[in-house]
Amino acid sequence: MLQVRHVRAEERHGDHVGGVLDQHAGVAMVGMVVIGPWSHDNIRIPLADEPGDEPAQPRSQPDVHKTFHHDLSGELRAAGLAVNVDQVIAMKVQDVSPSYLKGLHDQGIEPTAENVIAMRVQDVTPEYVREIRALGLNPSAMELIAMRVQDVTPEYIKALQAAGYKLSVNDIIGAKVQDVTPEFIERAQKHGFKDLTLQKLIQLRQLGILDSKSDL
Questions:
Q1: Interval 141-172: pLDDT, tens
Q2: 3-class SS at 5?
């Protein structure tokens, strides 16, 4: 802290400093107030680029994307599925696990990477595949996806079979799309329409011939 003082001539006796000041009376002097040593508890604000300081180096971060891809893709490849990084990410999002793939493989399903993602999205589980196969059907991965999309359940297939219809996977999907239900088949039979083919049932359904307002 700097202090500007105007020094007046004052008489000093036996004081050397006073004598010096007396010689320069009327002259503006710049004086400095000297602050004593700081204690260790004093806080010092560091100045930028002080000698001896080295610039802070950013810490290297692990490549999470690479690590994630390596870990999961290794497990998927071990389960017999070749994948790229985009497919690995999609599988992670949809919770496709090696155990899920193994369950499908155990049921004879060998899906591609794209198919397995779609199967997981549509909730095609190993249990679902096993129940469908137990009914004498052998759908492919794409057919299983279509069946799930159309909400074809094992119970629906059993009801069609109980009504005397031994249908292929494609026919079952077509029947479900056209809303040919076991109840509709029973209604047709009550009207004397027995032993109809699936195509005839679909035509009756499309034309609304057996709807409640158009009952014969």
A1: 999 999 999 999 999 999 999 999 999 999 99
A2: strand
Spell out a b/e string for 30-60, using b for 16 or more CB atoms within 10 Å of the CB, else e: eeeeeeeeeeeeeeeeeeeeeeeeeeeeeee
Interval 88-107 mean pLDDT: 90
Look at phi and psi of residue 80 and say left if phi exceeds 0, alpha if psi is from -120 to 50, else beta. Answer: left
pTM (2 d.p.): 0.62
